[in-house]
Protein 1
Amino acid sequence: MNATDRTPADLLRSALAADPARPLVTFYDDATGERVELSVATFANWVAKTANLLQGELSAEPGDRVALLLPAHWQTAVWLLACSSVGVLADVGGDPGAADLVVAGPDALDAGLACSGERVALSLAPLGRRFPTPPAGYADYAVEVPSQGDRFQPYAPVDPEEAALIVAGAEHTGAEVVERARAEAASLDLTGPGSRILSALPYDTWEGLSAGLYAPLASGGSVVLCRHLEQLGEDALAKRIESERVTSTVR
């Protein structure tokens, strides 16, 4: 990774320049049987489209707070990097009543209505499917994002020293996210290209976000992100670790 990268969005741009074809996020949902693998290029395209939606359609500006009421999921990872790209504050599991915008999964739609600003709903269904009927009071992410542009340019430069992330009540600047992720990568056995961590940690703690997104991104590695891993037997888990060429695990 480039030593001058100061925000998570910078890390993604460097990863895209270095090896766009390598896997970045492989997601499993063991409640539904879903498996999605996103290369750096595919992930970056989702991030660009989502950032364009956030900045353009939703009129988000640097300093705005976005409450992310979402589980550990590949689309949550996309939203975290989209927030970094625009310069808005991603508040993971934050109070929607105190947020400028809310992004909610199906289990948090009622809670998200407390936000008086724009609201976006994610079905989190396999293949990123839309809701059969759009939830009242929300825009359906799966409907809105496909038409967005494949390249993103922020209206204003993103300041790495501004608050970029709140998780478990702790606030981090973009620069702090990058520095901490880099510092922790080695302890997670993420030592560069080819390093591949399997994480079943939720995204509601720094440890879950670091293992499940930021440290792999900062180190040039990749993550196998598992939701509902408790529904997978130990033998099946061992086979997944082997087939996915996992080099370390956290759960």
Note: The chain has a mean pLDDT of 97.
Protein 2
Amino acid sequence: MKFFADTADIDAIRELAATGLLDGVTTNPSLIAKSGRDFMEVTREICGITDGPVSAEVVALDHETMMKEAEVLRKIADNVCIKVPLTIDGLKTCKALTGDGTMVNVTLCFSGNQALLAAKAGATFVSPFVGRHDDNGMDGMDLIRDIRLIYDNYDFGTEILVASVRHTVHVLESARIGADVMTAPPKVIMSLANHVLTDKGIEGFLKDWAATGQSIL
């Protein structure tokens, strides 16, 4: 499963990239606004940190303007992935862009039917939001199971990009189901390494090593 960082924080992206765990980045208008920086400038800088897809989202709602915005965005770098909303106009834009060889991430997916439409429109990625599903009293992972089944039934090439990931259990369940990608805040990705028994094991090893009075260096 690929790991994308869901952030516009350049320092956090660099830190994660240094671990070798970063496969791409997803951004959205809210994350860019939180950075307080120019949208184009931030996106360009992120594209220089990772060779993987960097999702840059259009803000228009009609197909014609989406296409104009996408034309500007995809000139930023070769690894820009245009993000469009899961609406009829968004799907129309997706079909046009992927037909031209541009990567497209269809976002704000909340049902298996919507995911089916995204795949039929040729989406590179579809982004189901599991955390927001959970917030509304539904099981977000059931949505991932539905999409995995649908895509496997018809051998769709669209990758399932699990979004709105809130904690490590979302990551674990996504991997169990067979999602292709998950995007999460860097702190969630980093926390995957945490385990109390690992900490205790290191503590014990260091105590025993100190008792030998030896040094590797």
Note: The two ends are 37 Å apart (CA to CA).
Protein 3
Amino acid sequence: MTRLALVAASTAHDGGPVLAGLDMGLDRGWKTYWREPGDSGIAPTFDWSQSENVADIELRWPAPRRFDDPGDITFGYTDELLLPLRVTPADPSLPVTLRLSLFYGICSDTICVPREAELELMLPAGPAEGGIMPTADAARLRAALARVPVAPADPGRLSVGWRPDAAPTLEVRLHRCGTGCVPPALIVDGPANVWFDTPAVTREGETVLYSVPAEVLSTAMLEGEELVFIFSGPDEAMAFRKTLP
């Protein structure tokens, strides 16, 4: 049902941060979840406490899909998932051993199953005979890293406000999406007690308008709150941070 492994982009580490990843393969019809799983998903948890010679592990999340079902919106991944990890050795001269105790969930259309796994990966220190070489997973890890949403070069591409003529509904405008631009999917990441519905998407010339109903009693509940607007398209993944007026 699930394939799991820890992988690395190189055969050893040179004392500095090294690119690794959690590699997950899912059978057709199954999905697993993002760090914010949505209405009914199961958020994964990661315990690295048994790792050796590790100063820091930074997990990076590729942009997820939004699954829209009646009354149930979740965020996650299907088929193949590779979560990049930036691993920093504590002692540059010693091997690094990653040990992960993972709790996660997988769901089909009819059932959700909580799962646990124990995974391990050892990276030698310094160039082995023949030098440090890229692994067969290096290109896949770089591609997964490219799907991690980053702050855009032009933050002015996004404007956000409340619709004055409707129940609490965010108007999110992505500017400069011209000819040939496929409107990217939008996920709004906000406070845990606020629910955002499926956006209605329209175009106004080179601007894509997302109308996002928010389940709040009043827009004042989000006054001064910072929201993250994550866009995932075929060519880019962006994350805009906006504080609501």
Note: The longest strand covers residues 96-107.
Protein 4
Amino acid sequence: MLRTKVEFRFKQDKKQSYVYCANHSSYLDIPTLCYSLSGYYLFIGKASLAKVPLFGYMFRNYYIAVDRHSKLSRYETMQKSMEAIDKKRSLAFFPEGTIPKNAGYQMIPFKDGAFRIAIEKQVPIVPVTIPFNWLILPDDGKYVPNRRLMKVIVHEPIETKGMTLDDVDALKDKTFDIIQRELIIQNKEVALV
């Protein structure tokens, strides 16, 4: 079992739906969020994950699948996501859409989906930083975990009330900056751990 530290920087309102947005650096990120977040939420993820052993089961029970190459699939995913929020569920996104080559240090630009949904449904975005999974289970094709502290930082929500779709880029940038800044801080400390 990996030592895990989950740091909440706000008190979750159990009656509130949230759109959680986390950096993506490892195949370990999905189970990490399942362990760390409370409440009922669904992941938004690429359809190909259904074929991965272990994740296939999780995918069918906790996911809304999207085929990013299909306009129809992207539309259906948006509709299902908004319906989930109407049912008082939260959503969890990895808005990078993939594990970047420089995972752990530098994120790649976020896709719009999570931010459009949060604004359309007027629910808060919650940035989530997962700083060390890239060290625990690197995306190197070996799938051999390294022992070290697993850490999750759940940042304060960013309110979307009053925002319009014209604010998508600003909301996306703010979320990106919070997570990226925390990645830099946490990974400076890696050498000290």
Note: Helices lie at 29-36, 55-62, 71-86, 113-121, 133-136, 168-188.
